[in-house]
Structure prediction request, 684 residues.
Amino acid sequence: MHIVITGGAGFLGVRLARALLQRDALSLAGAAPRPLTRLTLVDRVAPPAALTQDPRVRVVTGELDALLTPDASGQTRAVPTDSDAVVHLAAAVSGECEADFDLGLRSNLDATRALLQTCRALGTRPLFVFSSSLAVFGHTPEQPMPAIIEDDTLPTPQNSYGTQKYMSELLVADCTRKGFVRGRNVRLMTVSVRPGRPNAAASSFLSGIVREPLAGQRAVCPVAPDTRVALSSPARTIEGLVRALEASDEDWGPRTALNLPALSTTAGDMVAALARVAGPEVAARVDWVADAGIARIVGAWPAGMNARRAARLGLRADASFDDIIRDHLRENPVPPAAAARP
Amino acid sequence: MHIVITGGAGFLGVRLARALLQRDALSLAGAAPRPLTRLTLVDRVAPPAALTQDPRVRVVTGELDALLTPDASGQTRAVPTDSDAVVHLAAAVSGECEADFDLGLRSNLDATRALLQTCRALGTRPLFVFSSSLAVFGHTPEQPMPAIIEDDTLPTPQNSYGTQKYMSELLVADCTRKGFVRGRNVRLMTVSVRPGRPNAAASSFLSGIVREPLAGQRAVCPVAPDTRVALSSPARTIEGLVRALEASDEDWGPRTALNLPALSTTAGDMVAALARVAGPEVAARVDWVADAGIARIVGAWPAGMNARRAARLGLRADASFDDIIRDHLRENPVPPAAAARP
Prediction:
């Protein structure tokens, strides 16, 4: 079995790759279990060496559109003809898309379309897992939205990233209906706590306000403490993606996107959890400095999900943000020097 | 005031052009009334001579993408820099899009995107009325849909045309949010009775089963008599498009699409109305010959609309299909020879 992951050197891509490589066998779309014999990681940069040392891992680096251009024999570097499944994680993030409308359309909509056309050209109807986002949902004073999102809630995106993700979902669904791919649209929640560095996502602070204080650094929370957010830990998020690869067509259900479960919490409660788990001196490293632009984007997102369809697939939300912080600490131990910092 | 209509030589384009030219003044988006001084009709072919004789009418013929390519001075032929509003009616129809997936994407999604980018480049935030379609809604045994569509019902398109229209709505909404255009998404119902010849739309027969028998010709109804459809007369449809041009931002409401009102009826009731209005010998010219492909597309569309938002704008559905047939006969008198045919 050969699986391709775009964005394979990113945080979720690397984590998904590890999860798949650890498994003895995978039941793609409910089929008989088969071992993963090849895993192609496509990204602009190479994934960590720990991953590339696995003989099953094939690394392809470059711009996605160039990697999707067929050579003289009709092969593309990103999606070889023996690919059984593609997990499309590569994307421009919300902050980038809001700053550069055309970049967002190219990186999110056009790239997804090109990837779908590449899969269609294979003629083998590969599984196609598309990582969409809770950012398809949004509200403003003029555009109401239910506080809790149901499986059939109408998405009314309030930023370009969410718009492009939703447009891509529709294209994946139609390519599935046409028999070009077997598409599965999965809406990821805001992932927290992400390790590493801040990125240009408007939601970046939702990891930063935990990660940086734990590492002895100050962090800015740009939204009000009562701002409610829908979160998922890295572990729960990867569970959702693996389930999208393994669920049978019947269990998966319609071509509309599946909302992953979310923990509904507030920025204030997140920092309170940090105080409980790591101590008040750590939580005191969060500075509350409002940023109207970020507050507008994040404040328009859903506060919670009633993810019934995901629940039927056995997927569940994290129990508490305290648990999420503890998981993060277990996976990312704090250097003693940082912990001791005032 | 300068208004551009793409698809300006088509049935709805010509009819909208006539309606606009007859008005002494138009209140674009609720602004103070101004006379229409120029009307650009963009299409592959020229509109009827009766229209082009009006000195205000400017005809631009060719492929839309070529007409949107700027010249050395940055002007495009389709959308001159003094354009106050664009009504985008040009599209590939449902049957074409289902037969040729790539043509549909180019003609519907890519063309709308290019037109939006052209309007954006003007820097004047023109009004942009996008004609979407009830085909954004669809159901299958696996994908439920409410029998009556509400303003916030989740579209789950079951054909490529509806998918491309819905993707375009989302792009229009985001370009409006970004301040590139003032977009208004209007979902048209199936228009019946269209005069003229059958086209490649899956819904073409919904005009043909009235128009052809009235003209003394036999017509095929490819769906079962109990197939329920949501229809609008040409007159009610044009009313909706004009209202989209004239409503104030406040009256218009959110950037999500407006469902126009529809008369909910069945193929059987349409033919019964034909018998009442024109006589049983005319209705007997309908042959019931099932076509599974057309039945699948049309059978997946909505049976009725609860168009509350449209009602608040003063828009109403046709009262009966009998009235629609009478309107059609008034506008398209039957030649005596055809009427006398057995």
In short: Chain B is about 40% helix and 15% strand. The radius of gyration of chain B is 20 Å.
